[in-house]
Design brief:
Two copies of one chain form a homodimer. Chain A is α+β, with helices and mostly antiparallel strands. In chain A, the strands form two sheets. In chain A, strands 1, 2, 3, 4, 5, 6 and 7 form a seven-stranded mixed β-sheet that branches. In chain A, strands 8-9 form a two-stranded antiparallel sheet. In chain A, a hairpin with a 2-residue loop joins strand 1 and strand 2. At the A-B interface, strand 1, strand 4 and strand 6 of A face strand 1, strand 4 and strand 6 of B. The first copy, chain A, binds a DNA duplex through helix 4.
Chain lengths: ~230, ~230
DNA sequence: GCAATAGTGTCTTTCAGACAGTATGAC
DNA sequence: GTCATACTGTCTGAAAGACACTATTGC
C-alpha cells in the first residue's frame, strides 16, 4: 500500500443487501421504494452508508436489523464483489459492498423498518431497479445457486422445522429445475449432518404426513449436490 | 440506499494484490518491503489507493501493471471479500478491496516496479506481514484452492506451453497433496477443452520427453476436479 | 542392455440418474 | 376400499481411486 500524497476527494462506501427468500413457489428479494432523488419511486435493494466506527460486516448486520428486524448473527450473510464504477451513483463517487442474506419465508417485511414500503418481489420480475442494483441482484442470485451446491445453506431458506419436500422445493425454486424426489431424499439422507429428524410430523390436507427435520451441524456438502 | 445527512469523515479505499505463482516447488506470493511507517521494513502485499475516476477493477489492473509489468487483461484477476475493520490501518479509516492474481513463474519481479524490493516469498513463510495482510493472503490462497476445483485457472500458473506433469504439479503444490499421475492424465484428457496438444515435446535430462499442451477454450470443469 | 520419466489400460467402488413399488394418512 | 402424498428399493452408467503395465528418450 503506497502512501501517496494526493488530494482527497469525496468517496463514500455503502452496504447493500440482497435478502432472498422462497415465497409462493418463487425466489423473491426484499426491496424498498426510494423516497428521494435519484431514482425516486423506483425499487432498490435496502442499504446504507458505512459509518466510520464500524466494520463493513457490522454495517451489513445493522442494515439487516433495521430493514427486517432479523438478527444478522442468526442469518448467513455472504459478501459479494464490490461495485465501484465511477458513474454508478449520480450523487458522487460511491463504492458499494453488497451482501447476500438468506431468510426463511417471513410473514411479511417487518414494519418499523428504516425505509417504508419494503416488500418482497420475485427476482425475475424486479427489474428495473435503481442504480446498478439489477446487476447486484443477478450476482446475488447466481451466488445463492452456487452455494446450494456445496453448502447446507438451503436450510436457511426454511424455518426451524421443515420437511425434505420443503428443502427440495428450495433447490427447485432457486435452480429453476425439477429434481427427482427419490434421488433427492437419498442424497440428503446419506450426507452426514445435513438434516436430523425431530420425530415430529406435519399433517396436510391430503396424503401421508411428512416427517419433520431440523438443520444438522454440517455446513458443507461433500460430495456436492450437482446442478447440471 | 438511504440518503442520510451526516458528517463525512475521511475514508479511503485501497486495492491490494495477492499475486500468486508456483516457483521452486512451492506456492509463492509477490511481496514488497514497506519504505514508510507504519510497518516500515515489513513485507506487505502490493497495492495502492483507488483514484476517483477509475473503477475498482481498473485500479487492480493498474497496480498489477505497476508492480509486475503484467497486463491485467491477460491474467485472471479475482476479487476477494473486502477488509474494512476500523482499526486495520493506523493512519485512518481504510477499506481495502483485495484481488487474487494468478501468474506463471516469472523470471523475477520486474524491475522498475512501483515499490522497490519486490520479491517472491513462499506463502507459508510470509507471516508476519504488515496490516492484516496475513489474513488477506490466507483468503487468497483458499480461494485459489477452490478455484482449481471448478475452473481451468490452473493453466494460468503455467506458461503458454506446458506438460501435463507441469499442470499436475500446480495442483499438488496449491493443494499440498500428491495426485496420481495416471488418474490426473485421464481426468484432464477427458475434460473437453481443458488443454490442447501443440504437437511439440519437451526434452529433459533423463527419461522420455513430455508432450506439450496449451490452454483450451474451456473455463469451467464439469465434473469438477475433486480435492478431498 | 539399463535408468528414468511419460503415458495407457483395467479393475473396483462410489454415486448420480432413472424408474417402480410400498407406506401412511384422510375420507 | 379410493385418493393423495411420503418414502424406500433397484438397476444402470459415469467417473474417481487404486494399481500394473507399456513407451520413449539418453546413456
Amino acid at each position: 500500500m503506497t502512501s501517496r500524497a494526493r488530494k482527497h476527494e469525496d468517496l463514500r462506501v455503502t452496504v447493500d443487501l440482497a435478502i432472498l427468500t422462497v415465497r409462493e413457489e418463487r425466489l423473491q428479494v426484499l426491496l424498498v421504494e426510494r423516497g428521494n432523488e435519484p431514482y425516486q419511486g423506483r425499487l432498490a435493494l435496502p442499504g446504507g452508508f458505512l459509518r466510520v466506527d464500524e466494520d463493513v460486516a457490522e454495517a451489513a448486520e445493522r442494515e439487516l436489523k433495521e430493514e427486517t428486524g432479523l438478527d444478522g448473527r442468526s442469518l448467513p450473510l455472504e459478501q459479494l464483489p464490490v461495485f465501484g464504477a465511477p458513474g454508478r451513483d449520480p450523487r458522487g463517487r460511491v463504492v458499494t459492498v453488497p451482501y447476500l442474506a438468506i431468510a426463511p419465508d417471513l410473514p411479511v417485511p417487518v414494519a418499523g423498518s428504516d425505509a417504508s414500503g419494503a416488500r418482497w418481489e420475485p427476482v425475475d420480475a424486479a427489474a428495473p431497479l435503481a442504480f446498478d442494483h439489477d446487476d447486484i441482484l443477478g450476482v446475488a442470485v447466481e451466488r445463492a445457486r452456487v452455494m446450494l451446491e456445496r453448502t447446507t445453506i438451503a436450510t436457511a431458506f426454511c424455518g426451524t422445522e421443515f420437511t425434505i419436500g420443503d428443502l427440495r422445493h428450495v433447490y427447485e425454486v432457486v435452480w429453476q429445475r425439477p429434481l427427482d424426489p427419490r434421488n433427492f431424499n437419498r442424497k440428503v439422507g446419506q450426507t452426514e449432518g445435513f438434516v436430523e429428524p425431530t420425530g415430529g410430523k406435519r399433517a396436510q390436507e391430503t396424503g401421508r404426513p411428512a416427517a419433520l427435520y431440523r438443520r444438522g451441524r454440517a455446513t458443507t456438502l461433500y460430495p456436492p449436490m450437482l446442478r447440471e
